[in-house]
Amino acid sequence: MTTRFLLVCVVSLAVFAQTPRGPASSIDKPAMNTAVDPCTDFYQYACGNWVASHPLPADRSRYGRFNELQEHNEHVLLDILQSAEAKTDRTGIDQMIGDFYASCMNTATLAKRGIEPLKPELDRIAAIKDMAGIAAEAARLQRMGVGVLFSFGAQPDPKDSNRTIAGFRPGGLSLPDRNYYLKTDPKSVDIRKHYVEHVAKMFQLAGDSPDLAAAKAAKVLDFETTLAKHSLDRVSMRDPNKTYNMEPRGFLAEKWAGFPWDAYFKAVGAPAFETLNVAYPNGLNGFDSEIGTQPLDTWRAYFTYHLLHASATMLAQPFEDEDFDFWQHYINGVKEPRPRNMRCVSATDRALGDLLGQKYIQLAFGADAKTQITSLVVGLERAMGDDIQSLPWMTDATKAAAIVKLKAITNNVGYPKKWRDYSHVTIAADDYLGNVERAAEAMTLQRIEKIGHATDKTEWTMTPPTVNAFYSPQTNSINFPAGILQAPFFDPRRDMAVNYGGVGAVIGHEMTHGFDDQGRKFDGDGNLRDWWTPQDGAEFEKRASCVADEYSGFTSVDDVKLNGRLTLGENTADNGGLRVAYLALEDALKANPSGKIDGFTPEQRFFLGFAQIWCENVTPQAARNLAATDPHSPGRFRVDGTLQNMPEFQKAFACKAPAPMVKENACRVW
User: Fold this and answer.
1) What domains lie within the chain, and their CATH numbers?
2) Is the model's pTM score more than 0.90?
């Protein structure tokens, strides 16, 4: 079961009732287009001028308010890395992060070496002679973080979250989703045509003739299309009951008898295990007859392309350019790469995030942040408890169980309780590819070794400088990395209504994830268990279907509609989280009443504060891709879709039916 990400900036909160405020509301008035009727399109009303005055940077496919904070964090990290690189007398952390960053920035060495750093692995792939060699190479690539064929690793047991088990899921695709291979509309056909051309160019850069490269590229597409036919669709992946299928270890051999599973498990570093969770058992039905019978040349081509793609940014410029041209420029509409130093900052964070995070914490994380965020969370939890108790459609028995789960949520702030161990990772200033591979392999082994052990519920899936927040259903915890606990999305000197609309809604969003269509299926201990009465479960599904149908009616780009079932969890969390934040604000206003500021009531400022964290621009290509793959709705629908369902918003701005921002049959789950 995956964690649930918000993909916005969350920032630290002081205790609002005790925070002196200046005369300004901190609403971004220049961002607003007040020529638009707020009852017609509140997103344009709140963000219209921002959208018009912030054209996409050439190196972005999507840019919004939270990216502004991310850029600030990246410059803090850049200073840390450049300082570590320059030091002569360095600590272990400074040596590792400084040399990793230096290896990424050393483009002269990358250009000089060309394909040479990858040659040993390419030779191993070329030497594959049988299925034993295929299994060995699959394990080797997976250890290096190259996603081929299927994923195998450690996961908490969905029905016993205190233990870690082995997990298996068919995979191994390159294009963003199975439908990219299977759909027959003109756009999908065109994408596959460009994909084959791109793969052929990568093979040519690796030394193949044009004819051989084209033939191998066609084999890669055919092979991945076969894999796609046996992949689970994204909506089904969201149902934890569908992806929980405990099987004996020998089940895999029954499905794919020709694959040497024992040798694979040994090569990938798995400890002993007797059972595993097979996320999609039917996905293995064709492996013996269709995948296992592929010619060796097809296997070699498939492994080679995946290795080239995964390694392109660590090789000479021509590889990086070709990889960018297809994946970023063609697929997502990005005009040019991000500056090299910023890409190297991100690469260091991905590879050595807990080391870089320790340095970041020293500079950017105030000592009182945990106290501040906890104070706000307490108020929001109280508001959510009141909201649950007031639900007219839920019986007392399920309400009581929901309150138990709410009270069991753990709130983690800033950074993990235990840092990752990188002591076995060798980092050299002149070996960028090797650094990335060694760091990835160490991470893979650390994770896979957890099979058979007690689950470490303190482990984070984000690095401390990350601008995001996440809820984990199997730890029943909300996590706020230090990277998001700062301005500009919260300012302790500004009006509390704007803060509640911004970060308050974010925290409420994460709380509601515990009770969305996925989270509600786990209890307070993080176990997959139905704690609902049948009546309440049916009522929930009816209300969730209203939300799914609503968002499925929104058009992302051209003729592409959103998939309301794919985005259901995030939309439920947006709707529920904003309501919880509103209730918390109304409670705070009882003790600290506030009148109009800048001509807006506290409630109006609350909704503006919420809407303005979602101002963004996105390329048409990225919008199309995100509609197929992203469980989050675009910013404008996270605003208008949510507010259409809130009578409190309509009251604040005096919106009356049949205005577009007044939904005739409003959806409400929480």
Assistant:
1) 4-67+368-416+456-652 (3.40.390.10), 115-314 (1.10.1380.10)
2) yes
